Amino acid sequence: MSRIGKLPISIPADVKATLEGTVLTFTKGATTQTLDTLGNCGVALDGNTLTFSTNSDQRTDRAFWGTYRALAANIITGLTTGFEKKLEINGVGYRAAVNGNVLNLQLGFSHDINYDIPAGISMAVEKNVISIKGADKQQVGQIAAEIRSFRPPEPYKGKGVKYSDETILRKAGKTSKK
């Protein structure tokens, strides 16, 4: 039995959930997100409680059961509180700035990197920390990974873009001959 899948999800009062066949639609204000279970698991909506069930005892059906329950819980969390990732920029002359809907990065290359901020995502830069906020957990994580990939942290001096909770394993430099 899935420990995650059998937990019911309570839907907050400001989020409206509707079930049409296998498609769940969550709405808060003007923001709408859908989740299509494709018939891989059973879904029941009773007032403000959402429950998922497995179609059979096969391994794939049990996996879908927990997965779709987690995805639905993430959509509700995203609509109510949102998700946030923080990136730190370390290095001399490394800078970031938000200009309208473009993130401008100066990461030691001969050119600036201009990253277009997608709709539904907000970014803020304070000193050397980039905050990425949004309602979609997957999109926030993907954008953070793309920005980090422009200049990943290197192990000798620690220069580059890293997650705020990431630790970099530092290597020792060259040793001199005696």
Automatic annotation (TrEMBL):
Domain Large ribosomal subunit protein uL6 alpha-beta: 91-163
Keyword match rRNA-binding: yes
Annotated GO CC locations: cytosolic large ribosomal subunit
Family, per entry: Belongs to the universal ribosomal protein uL6 family.
Entries under NCBIfam families matching the protein: L6_bact
Gene Ontology MF term list: rRNA binding; structural constituent of ribosome
InterPro entries, per database record: Ribosomal_uL6-like (IPR000702), Ribosomal_uL6-like_a/b-dom_sf (IPR036789), Ribosomal_uL6_a/b-dom (IPR020040), Ribosomal_uL6_bac-type (IPR019906), Ribosomal_uL6_CS (IPR002358)
Pfam families, alphabetized: Ribosomal_L6
Top-level taxon of origin: Bacteria
Role of this protein: This protein binds to the 23S rRNA, and is important in its secondary structure. It is located near the subunit interface in the base of the L7/L12 stalk, and near the tRNA binding site of the peptidyltransferase center.
BP GO terms, sorted: cytoplasmic translation
Database matches in PROSITE patterns: RIBOSOMAL_L6_1
Alphabetic keyword roster: Ribonucleoprotein, Ribosomal protein, RNA-binding, rRNA-binding
Protein name: Large ribosomal subunit protein uL6
Assembly behavior: Part of the 50S ribosomal subunit.
Source organism per UniProt: Sulfuricurvum kujiense (strain ATCC BAA-921 / DSM 16994 / JCM 11577 / YK-1)
